[in-house]
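User: For documentation purposes, I need each entry recorded in a consistent format: the amino acid sequence on its own, followed directly by the corresponding C-alpha cells. There are two entries in this batch. Please keep commentary to a minimum and don't merge the entries.

Assistant: Recorded as requested. Entry 1:
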Amino acid sequence: MATIIDDSSTEINIVIIGETGTGKSTLINYLTNLFYDGSLTNLKIAIPTRYLKSNMSSIMPEHHENYLNDITRCKTSQCTKYQFKIQQVYFNFFDTPGINDTGGYLTDNENLNKIFECIQSFDYLTALVLILNGTQARLTINIKNVLERFHDRIPDIFYSNIILILTNCNSYTVNFESIKFLNHPPIFYMQNSAFSSDPHQWSEQTYEILQHDWNISIQTLNDFIKTLVLLTPISTKSLLDIDNDRNIIRSVLHESRLMIMELQQIEDELIALEQASNIYSENIEKYTMENGIQTKTVLVNIFEYRNS
C-alpha cells in the first residue's frame, strides 16, 4: 500500500537513518542502478564517492556531500530527497545525516533533530530504514544512545514499519546481534563493495567477485522494494502529538522546578531566621550573666472588676 498522490499515482516515503560510514549514501547509489538499469561497467552515480563522480544530475542536481575522502565524517549534511518512479508509483528516499559522527554528541543531536523535521515534513511515512554495519557484533555506545533517544521519540505504531539493512556482509557472514526494541523487523543483507574501490584498479578476479556480489545486492534490493510496496503508510501526526505532549511535560517540569526553587528559598530564609533567633537568645543570656542581672518571672492574675 502507498499514499495516494492523485487518482492515477501513489507515493511511498522512506527515511534512511544510520551511523556515519555504514552505507546510507551507497544504498541510494545501488537504488539508482536498480531503477536506471545500471551495471558494474555502466555505474549510475547519484551521490559522488571517493572514486566516482555523480553522473545522474536528473535525480539530484545539487549535493550536500562533504569529506568524501574521510570515512569517519558524515558526508550528508542535510536530509536529501531522491525520487524514483515505477509506472505510477513514486518512491521517495530521504538520505539523512549520519549519526555517531566525529563531531560528537552535539552534532548527533543536531542531526537527530534534522531527521525528525524531515519525517514531519510529509503527512505519511511508509518506512524507517535503519542501516547498520553487519560486521560489528554490537552497537557502539554512541549509536546505542542515539537509537535509545530515537526510540523515546517515536510511537509504537512505527515499529511495524522499521526495516533493517545490514551492510558489508551476507546472510551467512553477518556478525550482528539483534536490537532489543525491534521486534523481528524485515532484515536485508548487502555486500555493498562496488562503490568502495576504484574501478580502474579492478583486476579480472576482483571484477568477478564484485559481479557476484552485485547480482546478489540487486536481487536483495528487488525484494526490498517489494516489501516497501506492501507496507501500510503511517500518519506522522502521531509524532507531532508526541512532541506536543513532550513540550507540555517540559513546561510542567519547568514550573515545578521554579516552585521547588521558591520553596527552597523560603526554607533557607526560615533557617536563617531561626539561626538569628538562637544567636539573639544566646547573646541575651550571655549579657545577663555577665552583668549579674537576675530575672524573675512574675505571674500576673488579671481579675475582672465590676462596679457594684
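Entry 2:
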Amino acid sequence: MKPFKSRLIKTITLLAVGFILLFLFRFIYGYTTGLNEFQEEDFSNFFNDNENVSFKRNYASDNYKFKRLELTSSANAVTQPHEFDVNQKYEKTATVRSRSKEFEKDEKQVRATIKKFNAIIQYEQNAGRTGNRSIHFLIGTPPEKFDSLYNEVLKIGIVRSKEITKIDKTNEYKNLNAKKASLEITRQSLLDIKKQNGKIDEYINLQNRILEIEQELQSLGVLLGDFNEENEFCTVKFSLSETHEVKVSFLHRVKVAFEWTVQYYLLILCIGAAAAVFGFFFLLIIDKLLPSILSKLNS
C-alpha cells in the first residue's frame, strides 16, 4: 500500500509541476508580447479601399543613356556600341501607414515635414473622434526630394506597413501624344470641309463633330499637362491612425493564463494518454504475433 501511495504522490506532484510551469510560461508570455500596450484595430489601406475616388495622379521623367550593340555594314560584321537618349515617364508612389499615441503632435510633424521639403498636399481627409482619429494625406513631392521625404515620414509614429512602387508610363505618354496628333489632323480636315458649301443640317453635324473633337483635345491636354516638367511630382500616401493604451489588470492576466493553461494542459494529457494506449496495444499485438512469425521463419 505504501509504494502505491508514494507513486500516486509522485504522479500528482509531476502533473502539478507541469501545470505550474505551463501556467508561468503563459503568464510571462502575456507581459513580454506587450498585451497591454495598444488596442489593435482594423487598419485597412484607405487609398486602396477608396479606388472609386479620383485621386491626383503624379508623373515624373528620367533621362538617361542606353547602349546597344549593332552590326556594322562591313563584311567582317563587327559589332559596335551605339548610345540612345531615353526619356522615361514614370509614376512613383510610396504608401506608409502608421499609428500614434500622440496624434496631434505627429500630425503637426507631418505638416512640418511636408513644408520642409516643399511638397504639396493634394488630398487630405480627417475622420473619427478623439481616441480613435485618423488622417490621410496624398502628398506630391518633387522627384529629387522623394527619398528624403519618404525617410522622414517613416520616423513619424509607429510604422505598420510601407511600400514603394514605380510604374513605367512612357508608352502611355506616347499614346496620348499620338492620339492628340490624330485628333488635330481630323479637326483640320473637318475645318477645311466646313469652308465648302453644303446643306445646313450637314453643316450643323459637322460643327457638332468639331466641338466633340475640341473637347477630346482639351481632355488630352489636361492629361498631357500632368506629364510636363513643371508639373512633375512623385506621390507619398501617408495614413496616421490614433491608438490608445489598453490597461490589463493583474487578475485579468491570471484569469487568461489559467484558462489557457487548463485548456492546453488537458489537451496535452489527452494526447499523451492516447499515445500511451496506442503504444500499449501496439506492443501487445507485436508480443502476440512475433513468436508465430519467428516460428514460421525458422521452419
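Summary note for entry 2:
Residues 250-298 form the longest helix (49 residues).
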